[in-house]
Specification:
- Helices cover 32% and strands 22% of the residues.
- The chain is of the alpha/beta class.
- The strands form 2 sheets. It has a 6-stranded mixed beta sheet with strand order 1-2-4-3-5-6, with helices on both faces. A 6-stranded mixed beta sheet has the order 9-8-7-12-10-11.
- The two termini are 37 Å apart.
Length: 330
């Protein structure tokens, strides 16, 4: 498989250097780590909001560093959790004395290392650390990587509302509360037309025939819950939308994401969104806002996920709060 890389073992290090070179006024790298933080972190008078996970999901997580979203983002090796040491350094670097909220996707390595990192940071005089665990993937209740549902693209909504509440001056309990509200009201389901190819392995993570698709995939190249013959964009969208709505059962207004997995053209994402929005309308739902693009990818996988967030007035206010990050702005 052809890739624009040098030494696979330097993949993450060189990627982070490239991000710093692209956004030198916005983000900086903690010395001798794979942690990026806002250029102005820690921000006086505000709760720090941090996240992290394996690389390969760009722009997640460092793409969301900036006012109104994240203060820190730790990058593990590809599809591998950051170490507890680096997560602890990130927490300490983003603590302005008001506490730090950790937004964690529900993978066993991430949860374990964030728990350990919080204990380490508390020993270094970070007084208040809270955590939310995102588990928005409706496809599976347990997987190779998790106990319970996986955390996937709905995490971006959690980053947005938590970062907005912190930017508005909310205390740690308030920032955690709105993050938990987003977790409780968001659902996602994805599919793949192809596997992804990791830099170290150089070959597909799983085999998928030219006439096959995988429904319910995760973001680490995990196979889905069922393999079927390839279908039309509308048929695929109907499956994903049905899975999300049957789990979430939203009412009234929603916010949505149509997310590319890394190798899907934007034109195809718009085709999916066309059907997605029609199905939401058929179910009596009004889309208050929708995002279409690549928000949480799986390297070069061709595929898509759809996300629905059930809204109330508070969540709408937080979603429309100003944000300024390399990958997303309001």
């Amino acid at each position: 498989m052809k890739k624009l890389i040098n030494d696979p073992s330097e993949y993450v290090d060189e990627m982070l250097d490239g991000m710093i070179a692209a956004y030198p006024d916005d983000v900086r790298r903690l010395p001798d780590t794979n942690v990026l933080v806002r250029r102005d972190a820690p921000v006086d008078g505000t709760v720090g909001v941090v996240s992290g996970g394996g690389s390969g999901h760009e722009p997640t997580h460092a793409g969301y560093l900036g006012p109104g979203m994240l203060d820190g983002a730790a990058a593990g090796e590809v599809f591998t959790s950051p170490t507890a040491d680096e997560l602890s350094e990130m927490i300490r670097a983003c603590d302005a004395g008001e506490g730090v909220l950790c937004v964690v996707k529900n993978y066993e390595g991430d949860v374990m290392n964030f728990d350990t990192a919080a204990e380490m940071a508390e020993m270094e005089d970070v007084s208040d650390i809270a955590q939310v665990v995102v588990n928005d993937d409706v496809a599976v209740e347990d997987s190779t990587y998790t106990s319970g549902r996986r955390g996937v693209c709905g995490t971006i909504f959690v980053h947005k509302v938590a970062g907005a509440m912190a930017d508005r001056g909310g205390d740690l309990s308030e920032v955690q509360r709105v993050a938990e509200k987003a977790v409780d009201n968001v659902a996602t389901m994805g599919m793949a037309l192809t596997s992804c190819v990791t830099p170290e392995k150089g070959e597909p993570t799983f085999d998928l025939g030219e006439d096959e698709m995988e429904i319910g995939i995760g973001i680490h190249g995990e196979p889905g819950v069922k393999r079927e013959d390839i279908a039309s964009a509308d048929e695929i969208t109907d499956q994903l939308t049905g899975g999300v709505l049957s789990d979430l059962d939203p009412e009234g207004e929603v916010a949505t994401i149509v997310n590319g997995m890394g190798g899907t053209p934007l034109s195809e994402l718009f085709i999916v969104n066309r059907r997605f929005q029609a199905k939401l309308d058929e179910n009596g739902l009004e889309t208050w806002n929708t995002w279409v693009g690549e928000y949480m990818t799986s390297l070069d996988m061709c595929g898509v996920s759809v996300t629905v967030l059930d809204l109330d007035d508070e969540l709408k206010e937080l979603l429309e709060h100003e944000a300024d990050t390399p990958a997303f702005s309001v």
